[in-house]
Design goal:
This protein is an all-alpha fold. The chain has a domain of about 70 residues. Helix 1 packs across helix 2.
Length: about 100
Amino acid sequence: MPYDEIAEGILRIAGRAFLQLFVEVIFDVVCFHFGKPIVRLVTFRKYPSARPSAAQEIVISTVGMLALLAVVVAIGAGWLFGWEALYSLFNPSSAATS
């Protein structure tokens, strides 16, 4: 039916737009602001400039994404916090009894 093809096309376009928006928000906003202080620390405040170029923004966002991934892995593996600290964080009643 032609209606199925039209609906499929509309849903595909909407899905791509949502995915693009999600990637923009996560990568360009969250990762950029997480990576900017790391890049400034590593380069002794030389980079990024006040108005970073598109290539600098990509590098900063990639550094931020890798740093966020490292933090998530460290927390998940129990390296950053012990399992007891994480358990008591999400279950405060058990921390009060021990």
